[in-house]
């Protein structure tokens, strides 16, 4: 099992971070720390979404006229 959070986990944590920052009762150091975490999770989520989009485009390109789909790894 991977220690890397799923996209869903990242999105859930981002929602928690937004709620915490909007609460406006955090010391500046803590607010900055969770803001930095949020930026990191947002970047990771955007990367995963871009990778998924690339896979979808590749699958659509590789779909044969008879409707079958050929899947190939993106790195090979």
Task: Describe this entry's structure for a reader.
The structure is a single chain. The protein is mostly helical and 76 residues long. The protein has one domain. It is built from two helices and no strands. The mean pLDDT is 86.
Question: Could you give a short description of this structure?
Answer:
The chain is an all-alpha fold and 76 residues long.
Major beta sheet summary = none
Mean pLDDT: 86
SSE succession: HH
Which structural class fits the helix and strand makeup?
A: mainly alpha
Whole-number count of domains: 1
The number of helices is: 2
Shape: rod-shaped
What is the number of E strands? 0
Strand content: under 5%
Question: First CA to last CA: what distance?
Answer: 24 Å
> What are the low-pLDDT stretches, counting only 5+ consecutive residues below 50?
none
Radius of gyration over alpha carbons? 18 Å
Helix content: 55-70%
Q: Descriptors for this entry?
A:
mainly alpha, 2 helices
Write the layout of secondary structure elements.
Elements (H helix, E strand, L loop, with lengths): L6 H17 L4 H35 L14
Helix pairs in contact: 1-2
